[in-house]
Amino acid sequence: MLIYRKETPYFAITLDLGRNELKILQRWKYSWAIAPGSGRWTYAETKNFHHKVDRLIWSVWGSRFELKLAQGSKIPVNYKVGPVKTYFDVQWVLDNSAHWKVTVTKIKRGAFQQSYIRWNTREISLDTEDTTKTLKYINGPVRSYQYGLTHEFGHTLGNVAYTPSGHGDEYASGSPYLADFPSIMNSGNELRQRHLDFIKQTLNSMIPGVKFDISHVR
User: Fold this and answer.
1) DSSP letter assigned to residue 130
2) pLDDT digits (tens, 9 = 90+) for 94-116
3) What is the pTM of this model?
4) Side-chain-facing half-sphere of 206: CA atoms under 13 Å
5) DSSP H helical segments within the chain, as ranges?
């Protein structure tokens, strides 16, 4: 059998070595909040917001990482060794199977509300402007743009101070990656190998004798 699965509090992993694919699934249970003067949510608006979540996570995170079998790993029987592509998916659920409880606040266009995650309680706070690309950093001709949604999603993958990887917001004072403005965990939209550290640690605990390294990031 070449399909391996692991459920964690934060995401579910499916490693399919028959297809050389790694899929990371999160189940989100939404609550829909309203800022003063922003109007009620309609069902169509909630569906549209989740559609944007799907689209943005796919476009920014999806199929960007490739993994390879680490040197010295035991090769599973019938496994045709090759690059393993990594995919991410978010499902909207209504039951208690959710990995994350997500509050989305409807705010006026152009307004700002601080978004965040709480790792230990698996909570996400977003707003309707988090699906809009925003200018985050200017230094002369250098500019960095970012979607708040895809930055916060990066935290839910383990880019927080509480995991063994130990790195969170890279724009914070004291971060070793403070100067890496284009990074998605800093002020931009670009991925780095380190952003998959916690996923890789979890993956490498799944199959005895089998370890993977990150070989490529697009």
Assistant:
1) G
2) 999 999 999 999 999 888 899 99
3) 0.94
4) 23
5) 43-60, 148-156, 197-203
